[in-house]
Amino acid sequence: MATTRRGFLTAALGAAASLPLLPRFAFARAALAGARRDRLLVLVDLAGGNDGLNMVVPFADPLYQKARTALRIGRDGVLPLADGIGLRRELAPLHTRFEAGELAIVQGVGYPGPDRSHFRSTDIWHTASLAPVAPTTGWIARLGERSDLALPGRIPLVVTAGGNVPLACVGARGPAPQFERVEELDVAMGPGAGGDARARELAALAEGADGSATLRLLRETARATHRQMAQMEQAVAASRVSGDYPKAPVGAALRLAAQLLSGGLELSACYVRQEGYDTHAYQADLHALLLRDLGAALGAFWNDIVAAGAADRVVVMVWSEFGRRVQENGSKGTDHGAAAPVLLLGQSLRGGLHGAAPRLDALDDGDLRFTTDFRSVYATLLDDWFEAPSTELLGAPFAKLPLIRRSA
Amino acid sequence: MSDALAPYVVGRDGPFGRAEAAHLLRRAGFGARPEEQERAVAAGLAATVEKLLADDEGKEAAQLGASGALVAEGDALAPLQGVWLGRMVATRAPLREKLALLWHGHFATSLAKVQRATWMWWQYELFRARGAGRFGELALAVARDPAMLVWLDGSSNEKTAPNENFARELLELFTLGRGEYGERDVQEAARCFTGWHVKEQRFWFNERAHDAKPKRVLGRDGLQDGGEVVDVAVAHPACARFVATKLLKAFVADAPDEAAIAETAAAFAEEGLDVHATLRRLFLSRLFFDRRWRRARIAAPVEWCVSLLRRTATRSKLAAVGTATGEMGQALFAPPDVKGWDGGAAWVSSRTLLARGRFAAALAYGDGALGTAVDWAMLAGTAADRDGATLVARLAELLVDDGLEPATRARLVAFADSEGAGGGATRIARVAHLLLSAPEALLV
After folding, report:
1. How many CB atoms lie within 10 A of CB B3?
2. B3 falls in which pLDDT band (50, 70, 90)?
3. Searching chain B, which residue's CA lies closest to the CA of residue A335?
4. Which of A49, A195, A328, A395 is most buried, by CB atoms within 10 Å?
């Protein structure tokens, strides 16, 4: 029977693994000219195309009521945001933050020439580029690879979700580290003495710089895995989180994110994905369940962030690759659409509604016209949150939004 | 016939030796043991390709047929995965399973939404039965397949307010690729598929829900029925190229170059989109045996595990293997989305590499959960108690068709020597574990 040895990765690394983790949230202050290292962005990707109209609901608009018969959300289904606009009750934990001035809702976010392919639109959001052939690196990975963030011993970006590593988190040096369950940080080294020696031998197999590009990618990822997973394991061991997360995968993913944060891992960004928003049929129950899980998971996550004393150093951004068609289809669902709201959560934000609500009387082939370019949201986060040059990282300048309350 | 996929002439273009036979058997199947490779060399290239395409399951066919019945019990994912993996491990006609795997990734449908294991199994049987024939017939059969009709909501597509889900993915992901159609084509195609429903677990044309007015799709007027949309899409020049690229990614290279795509697309079009005929030309071509493709693809997790189980002849708990390939990024019957698995570099992340490492250890040392128990002493044969170089050579031949980098080989030899020649099965298992954990062990 094989012996399973937790901690093998630490053994494999020898001295390198004992890089000290910082005490909880004792972030390093940024160097004067560099990006802020004491700031964190949590990306929550609602994969499949979230029906933004049924998240931030213009319930009083007769055109909304007319377009949505089976899927209409009435006054009873929402919590008030502004005259005639409400947040779905399923997101009650977020509404509490809205009332505290910590939830910013950017309305009508999209881009020119919206693409209704999941995959193309996902690439556009993840790379922040409308170029016909998407770049090979993601926008947040580009931030993470800046030399002042990617210091030795620091892990700028982590994916705590299963599935593919999202393009947003693939950099010039390969994919960001990813894991979904704590148990994954575990490798068997076989029976008998000498396990540590074999672990070092195993790590050595990933050395070497020659060979094809594919082989180099495999080696580089393996080396990074050995280095990073040991640090993550230590952070998880040192973490303190609540048990109030929903059982759904988005709950587990945000719980892991909270563990890494409260365990002292020096992160700049963390990516979480919630799947299932492609609601072409029988949307009502599916969408309600997804929003309930999302609200509960973010509520629990935020409580842990507050308990860790980090609520002014963390911003959460919730978005989707597109919204859905205004007119529901005959399957009690909605087809692929365009503009949708982006939610941002954090104590350093100016809470409230931002940007213009998209008009239901001026549709573009049945879809909402965007009023704010998503790259303006990115530019604001890069410039005003991370104090990193957005024009350089996005490849072009974009108008900024008054989202960040102060720069401490 | 054009000169697309010019034949590989043994002698003039190169040999058909162990290396070439191993390459062919890795790509058209799940890899082969040294003795099978020797038999292929003795039979020659043409006869080996014909044998692969002949698809003769022999006496196993009846046994394999029976396994589908197991699936009906419950709608859990792991047993369903286990039954298919069992076929892949046991079959004498691996190309058939490899094609089914290709089409499963192409028409990617998930139990997560379909929720009926039997329907998923029927879809797999469809890929298996039709996967080698004409692509147009396969695409039409998939459009009428109950699992697909649920997966992309065809079964609720009504003329009063059409559901665009299937129509969009048919054009974007199944036949043409983005940029070859417009939004109007999606909307009109969706109207053609109205009324394509499911009744009593079978395709049912619900005339009352069908929009009978003429539609215009991809420049063709007067279309009426979904079948005509499939015909028009499959006849579109972009289709041969789009699907040929998938064939190349499955059988030749993670990132085929433009010349390879153009050549294969031309051959595929010449063959009337017949998969069997195109694969024959591909497997006999100079392009296929180009040295730069060999051991340059990253093995898909299913391909990798099945290959190792076949090469080591170990028993295993196949449902658990299904869960393991899922952790490596490829859960059979549960692809991440309708685009299927991206493959290539997308297989590589810290999480998936750790999962591959766990499987390597489970195979090497034996594992209760996976049920693996390799008889290393038997497999190593006379090399078992020999010096490090001899042992490593034997394991490398058996497990990775000699595909070790020189530096890796040197390290493994030094390690095997340090363990001492009297180490028996434990020493072999340790060397095998390290070998399978080397980055190049993931290449096929």
Report:
1. 9
2. confident
3. B164
4. A49
* CB-CB contact of B415 with B434 (8 Å): yes
Q: A282 and chain B: CB distance < 8 Å anywhere?
A: yes
Q: How many DSSP H helices and E strands does chain B contain? A: 24, 4
Q: Residue B428's closest chain A neighbor by CA?
A: A190
Q: Give the contacts of A20 (CB within 8 A, at least 6 positions apart).
A: none
Mean pLDDT of chain A: 90
Cα separations (Å) of A143 from A137, A173, A381? 10, 13, 11
Nearest-Å Rg of the Cα atoms of chain A is 22
Mutation site, B153, B193, B350, interface A, largest A CB count within 10 A: B350
Contacts A175 to B, Cβ<8 Å: 348-350
pLDDT in tens, B340-396: 999 999 999 999 999 999 999 999 999 999 999 999 999 999 999 999 999 999 999
Rg, C-alpha atoms of chain B: 23
> How many CA atoms are closer than 13 Å to the CA of A69, on its beta-carbon side?
5
For residue A221, pLDDT beyond 80:
yes
Of B153, B254, B345, the CB nearest to A331: B153
The pTM is what?
0.92
Give the CA dihedral A145, A146, A149, A150, nearest 10 degrees. 40
Closest-approach residue (CA) in chain B for A224: B350
Minimum Cα–Cα distance from A232: chain B residue: B350
Classify burial at A288, counting beta carbons within 10 Å of its beta carbon; exposed 0-12, middle 13-18, buried 19 or more.
middle
- Sign, CA dihedral B420-B421-B427-B433, equals positive
Q: Which residues are bridge partners to A318 per DSSP?
A: A44, A343
pLDDT cut 70: percent of chain B above it: 95
CB-CB: which of B159, B254, B407 is closest to A208?
Answer: B407
B146: closest CA of chain A, how far (Å): 16
User: Would you kindly state where each structural domain of chain A is located, as residue ranges?
Assistant: 38-192+231-394
Query: Which of chain A's residues have a Cβ under 8 Å away from the Cβ of B158?
Result: 330-331
Residue A25: pLDDT band (50, 70, 90) is very low
What are the two backbone dihedrals, phi and then psi, of residue A105, each rounded to the nearest 5 degrees?
A: -115, 115
A198/B contact by beta carbon, under 8 A? yes
**Is B152 in contact with A280 (Cβ distance < 8 A)?**
yes
- The closest CB to that of A187, out of B172, B357, B430, belongs to B357
A330 and B160 within 8 Å at the Cβ level: the answer is: yes
Cα–chain center distance at A117? 21
Nearest to B178 among A1, A117, A328 (CB): A117
Are B98 and B29 spatial neighbours (Cβ–Cβ below 8 Å)?
A: yes
Mutate to test the interface with A, among B149, B348, B351 (most CBs of A within 10 A): B351
Partner B contacted by A167 (CB < 8 A): no
Domain A38-192+231-394 bears CATH identifier 3.40.720:
yes
Closest-CA residue of chain A to B298: A214
Q: What would the pLDDT profile of A76-128 be if each residue is shown by its tens digit? A: 999 999 999 999 999 999 999 999 999 999 999 999 999 999 999 999 999 99
pLDDT digits (tens, 9 = 90+) for B167-213: 999 999 999 999 999 999 999 999 999 999 999 999 999 999 999 99
- The amino acid occupying position A37 is R
